[in-house]
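We modelled the chain as a single entity of 332 amino acids. Its sequence is:
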Amino acid sequence: MSIVRPQSTSRLLQRLLTVTASLLACVMLAGISGQAAAGAAPLAHRAPWGGYEEVWVPSEMGPIKVQIQWASRGGNAALYLLDGLRARNDRNAWSFETNALDQFRNDNITLVMPVGGESSFYTDWMAPSNFNGQQTTYKWETFLTRDLPNYLETRGVSRHNNGVLGLSMGGSAAMTLAAHHRDQFKFAGSLSGYLNLSAPGMREAIRVSMLDAGRYNVDSMWGPPWSPLWLRNDPFVVAPQLAGLSMYVYAASGLPGHFDQPQAPIDYFNTATGMALEALSLANTRAFQVRLGSLGIPATFSFPPHGTHSWPYWSAELWKARTQILNTLNAW
């Protein structure tokens, strides 16, 4: 019969407590949800099926917040949803202006919603904007096609089975990103995008819009008119590179529709602004349609007779594009 002395008992208890604390810490770390540091995800760490997270992903611009709804059954497909010209620094508007999360909640596809990028056109700029004291140079193309897929790959998302869709500024960017990164994107969608950026008057229109949305200087973005960078980011110019890509392209007439119910004076102002912006998008998108037709490149086009430049219409069009997106990425 062995006798356990008090000192031995104390040491045994201490060891037990240490092991218990270690196990508890592992359980807590495994169960953490919500915000997470991107760098904390180990290689090949699978994401929680159907869960929602907000992560910070390193970039040349500093850490970028990304809202993510993971595929419902652990699939490797992803859809990048790009914001508009007035993109906010706290949330991507797709997550609260639309029901995008609900639309794809039961589908085997991850929704990726980067936060920020006001007036950026999601491209790599030449220099910081010198009108508003911007401290860093926008490097959004690099982030979306290198840094972000690098991170997502550690969470089970393929680098080669992705779609990208955006509205307005984001629609333009979706087409150019897909054109230049065909190994990454199999689908591209433009909702009320500007797809003929080198057309007469477009540079001036973009200049005014970017000054209004954050006082950004368009000259810091792509340089002078007809520069190689400007042409590189014009969907109309790079259209030949879109051959074989699944595309969904939408623009409405600009005439008020069933989602437009102005009541207060500010509502009428916003509706009038939305009418003008959508009419310009329609002209650009029709030109883009003719351009694709001349090249023999097919795409799905949606031109409803009513609709302004506003979120309810984009939410409805995302639902219409859903089947094409899921089929293209095999994400049912």
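As a brief sanity check on the tokenised model: Confidence is low (pLDDT under 50) at residues 1-44. The beta strands are 34-37, 52-57, 64-69, 77-82, 109-114, 162-167, 185-191, 246-250, 300-302.
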